[in-house]
Write a structure and sequence with these properties.
64% of the residues lie in helices and 9% in strands. The protein is built from 20 helices and ten strands. It has a six-stranded mixed β-sheet, with helices on both faces. It has a four-stranded antiparallel β-sheet with strand order 2-1-4-5, covered by helices on one side. It is elongated. Bound molecules: adenosine-5'-diphosphate. Residues 140, 377, 380, 384, 402, 404-410 line the site of adenosine-5'-diphosphate (ADP).
């Protein structure tokens, strides 16, 4: 027999405290969470709620009818055949049983897997909407992502139980009163004798589950490790590294190591659960047994007839089952409520950006100003951007250069409103950008990020961000030409209808890094926003494509204000002004000629880079 690791007394006390604190600390209580969930469910499908009631009442009536059916059948058998009245009663009871069984089954059919899946998808939908809409900074917060994961997992795991629980507790409440009333007619004391051990069984159940709940920290690490290794196996983008670097064996070993540890804890859990289950059976049976002995004694001594004996015998069994189920439901409700709290915590994540109203955005060219802006990433100690002030003038092409980690990408994200400055302000034509409506403000930027990703959709949909019917195809082709990707797209069998996403569509294609970058550029050009932000747009391009890009850049940015980030200093010659950044602050600023003349850091970096090309 497996020896369960000791749960020491002090820890056990603390665990109970933690458990209670968690239940207490939840923002919303069980009743409020259930009401909230039911309102949501009712909002999307009234029938789910109706079927809950139909099944609860259907099963309740069936169970009551069943114990009377047994009673009359026994009376009929004891008294011989031919008793017309008893036969009629039995037939009526059979018909009633059939009727309620049928409607409960029909309602259950509606509320079966489809109903459950729709319920889960409904919650998933709410979470997805929020995750796509919430402030970008929130997406980067670990705590927030954890809440999202817990909410998704919790909804999947507990939604079916929630609907089941609700109907079960309605049914069992009705049964509790009905069977208690039936037994009270015989002797009131039968009721507590049956109910109390069943309640004790509930506490044993809680003790059992608390251990599982609190010990989870011991195995979550191994589960995460196994999940990670599994994901490496599934991830197409990592497949080549795994093969080329011969990492399969290492990964398999790591998986086996974690698996072994996980199994150890499964064994522990099984042993713990087994002990509690045995104890529960003893406790729950004790009450029922005492009550059975009592009614058997009554029938043997002729105090009650055989028909009534069967009635009370069944009533004891049903009452005990109803209390057990009721207690089980409480655990289920607590669990569901905990998960709904995660859902609500995520849905209620505070968003600081303005979503409604706001100032009208300027129609013409615009000037962006950073005024004493500092920015510290969430959880970081030091600011990445420090007291930064600069202006991107209307129609200007400004280059942002600096070593890796200088803060260039952070500036781009701050400018387009993805991050909110920790200190200072960012102004668009003299107005703090917080005063504009977020969605409209986003519309002001065409951005190409280093890690811009294409979606699993057609090329046309990726470039235009719209369905094919709504897209302006002539403009789309024009932008593809400007970005230097038109010929490549036309060479494909399905041309612009070709899809990306090889893990999603069997006929999908993939592009090289440089080709993807060109497509992302075409997408930015298609958007044709007043401000163009290009973050290392040539990083993946070959020398010819890079040269073309520089030449075309002057044309792309005509009539726009634009920010061009590159660590290749040669590219910045096409810009009006260059800003050299170091540790989040401006080190030098001026035109290429001015900075070269100045002979500072920019001039030094430029000479180092050009020496490679000149072979010096
Ligand atoms: P650059 O674009 O100049 O290479 P970034 O703006 O990407 O630099 O990054 C500046 C610094 O901020 C880096 O030191 C980086 O480690 C840090 N950083 C970037 N993104 C995050 C993030 N999401 N969370 C925490 N730190 C970050």
């Amino acid at each position: 027999m497996v020896k369960v690791k000791k749960w020491d007394k002090q820890k056990k006390k603390e665990d109970w405290g933690k458990y209670r604190a968690e239940i207490k600390g939840m923002k919303y209580g069980i009743a409020k969470n259930i009401a909230w969930a039911m309102k949501k469910i009712y909002g999307y499908d009234k029938w789910v709620v109706a079927t809950v009631l139909i099944i609860a009442f259907g099963d309740y009536f069936r169970n009551v009818i069943l114990i009377y059916t047994d009673k009359y059948i026994v009376e009929l058998a004891a008294g011989g055949f031919g008793q017309t009245r008893l036969i009629a009663v039995c037939l009526l009871l059979f018909a009633g049983n059939f009727f309620f069984h049928f409607i409960a089954l029909a309602a259950g059919n509606y509320n079966g897997y489809t109903g459950f899946r729709r319920l889960v998808d409904h919650f998933y939908g709410l979470l997805m909407e929020k995750s796509m809409d919430t402030d970008y900074e929130n997406n980067e917060r670990m705590e927030n992502n954890n809440n999202l994961n817990k909410a998704r997992e919790g909804v999947m795991a507990s939604s079916r139980d929630m609907v089941y629980n609700l109907r079960a507790s309605i049914q069992h409440t009705l049964e509790l009163f009905t069977f208690s009333a039936i037994l009270s007619v015989l002797d009131f004391w039968l009721v507590p004798i049956v109910i109390l051990p069943a309640v004790a069984g509930y506490y044993i159940e809680r003790h059992k589950m608390l251990w599982v709940w609190n010990m989870a920290d011991n195995w979550q690490l191994y589960e995460r490790q196994m999940e990670y290794i599994n994901s490496v196996g599934k991830d197409f983008s990592r497949a080549k590294d795994v093969r080329l670097f011969g990492m399969q064996e290492w990964l398999e070993k790591a998986f086996r190591r974690s698996y072994k540890e996980r199994i150890f804890w499964y064994r522990q859990q099984d042993a713990w659960v087994f002990r509690h289950n045995v104890l529960q059976v003893f406790v729950r049976t004790a009450g029922k047994l005492a009550a059975y002995v009592y009614v058997i004694w009554l029938v043997i001594h002729g105090e009650i007839g055989v028909g009534d004996f069967v009635l009370y015998f069944n009533a004891i069994m049903r009452l005990s089952a109803a209390v057990d189920a009721w207690c089980g439901n409480i655990n289920g409700y607590q669990w569901f409520s905990k998960n709904i709290n995660y859902v609500r915590a995520y849905l209620e994540t505070e968003d600081r950006t303005r979503r409604t109203g706001g100032r009208a955005l300027p129609k013409t060219t615009c000037e962006m100003e950073f005024r004493n802006v500092s920015y510290t990433y969430f959880g970081a100690q030091t600011p990445v951007i420090q007291n930064l002030s600069f202006t991107l003038r209307a129609g200007e092409k400004l280059a942002l250069v600096g070593l890796n980690g200088a803060g260039k990408t952070t500036i781009v994200k701050l400018m387009c409103g993805l991050y909110d400055p920790t200190e200072g302000e960012i102004l668009l034509n003299g107005v703090n950008i917080k005063e504009y409506n977020r969605e409209e403000y986003f519309g002001f930027f065409s951005a190409v990020f280093q890690d811009s990703a294409l979606l699993a959709a057609s090329i046309a949909e990726n470039v235009t961000g719209q369905t094919v019917e709504k897209a302006d195809r002539a403009r789309m082709f024009e932008c593809m030409k400007k970005a230097g990707i038109y010929e490549k797209v036309m060479s494909l069998e399905k041309k612009e209808e070709t899809r990306f996403g090889r893990g999603v569509y069997p006929d999908a294609t993939d592009f090289s890094g440089g080709e993807k970058q060109k497509l992302v550029l075409a997408k930015a050009l298609y958007k044709d926003a007043p401000i163009l932000l290009l973050d290392e747009p040539t990083a993946a391009l070959d020398a010819i494509a890079e040269q073309e890009m520089y030449l075309n850049y002057v044309e792309f940015s005509k009539g726009k204000s634009s920010l061009f980030i590159s660590h290749r200093l040669a590219s910045t010659r096409f810009c009006d002004r260059i800003m050299l950044l170091e540790k989040g602050a401006v080190l030098e600023c001026g035109s290429h000629e001015e900075l070269m003349e100045q002979g500072g850091e920019y001039a030094k970096l430029f000479r180092i880079q050009s020496s490679y090309y000149e072979g010096a």
